[in-house]
Amino acid sequence: MPVATLFFQPSAEFKSKSKCESKFQSKAKSQKLTLLTAMAATLAITSGCQSIKTANTSHQSGTMMQAQNADQPNKLERFNITGKIGVTTPASDSSGAQGGSAFYAWGQQDDRFAIELIGALGIGKTNIEYDGQTATLVSEKTGTLTADDPEELLQKATGWQAPISQMPYWISGRPAPSDSAPKLDAQNRLISSVNGEWTASFTYKGSDKRPSKISAVQPQGNKVVMTINH
Q1: How far is Cα 204 from Cα 43, in angstroms, rounded to an integer?
Q2: Which run of H or E residues covers position 163?
Q3: pLDDT, greater one: 136 or 24
Q4: What is the pLDDT of residue 71?
Q5: What is the pLDDT of residue 60?
Q6: 40, 109 in Cβ contact below 8 A?
Q7: Nearest to 175 by CA among 72, 78, 80, 79
């Protein structure tokens, strides 16, 4: 069954940079994202000092403990979130580092998702959908593109790299099954995790268990920063 499309029509004022985020967030709150059969995933620089939980065993004393899945919140099988995403690519022989940003609305159900991007990283308003097998991207600049997975699709359309498949777990505040070296703070909240070449850091508001910001970086210089309004 195909993924339902997220419908979001910004007002004229949305085009003003100074009012963009407030218009997007108020619109998102008053108009629930459509989730007919399925919708899903993705993308915080950790600021300030966070206390680190240490293991009770002597050989781990004074070090960051690895997070255990049992200590983390349950993975959200369904969610509707909004926020802003910024992407940076490393410098190349022909150009310096490049970046772009967009406001997003993201709906997910199980492994299916729909994401709408406004001011979408240089390619205009964009919709990305994934039905668990095929990813589809539609924008004014690219038309309709498809790929086997969201990461391949995003890179094909924009040249950007982002760990989209891990995001549903990270948004939930828990490591993805393929993560390594997850670490917790004193409140048993995930503050960092590694997935392949990506290292993710997590920021929280107050005592919240779900992150409000995620930052993922690669050694080559690719970087994704995502703010989250749950």
Answers
A1: 15
A2: none
A3: 136
A4: 62
A5: 36
A6: yes
A7: 72
Q: Which two tokens stand for residue 6?
A: 């997220």
Residue from 197, 223, 195 nearest 91 by CA: 223
Give the span between the Cα atoms of 99 and 141, in whole angstroms.
Answer: 18
Q: Are strands 180-184 and 143-147 parallel, antiparallel or unpaired?
A: unpaired
Q: Are 126 and 120 in contact (CB under 8 A)?
A: yes
DSSP single-letter state for residue 33? P
Helices (H), 138-192: 150-158, 167-172
pLDDT tens by residue, 137-154 = 998 888 999 999 999 998
Which pLDDT tens digit goes with each residue over 111-137? 999 999 998 666 788 999 999 999 999
Q: Computed over its alpha carbons, how large is the radius of gyration of the chain?
A: 18
Count of C-beta atoms within a 10 Å radius of residue 29 = 10
List, in sequence order, the alpha helices (H) in 67-185. 150-158, 167-172
Tokens, residue 83:
């926020």
What DSSP designation does 180 have? Answer: E
Q: Which amino acid is at 146?
A: T
What is the distance between the alpha carbons of residues 50 and 191, in angstroms, rounded to a whole number? 8
164 touches 41 (CB < 8 A): yes
- What single-letter DSSP state applies at residue 122? T
**pLDDT of 159:** 80
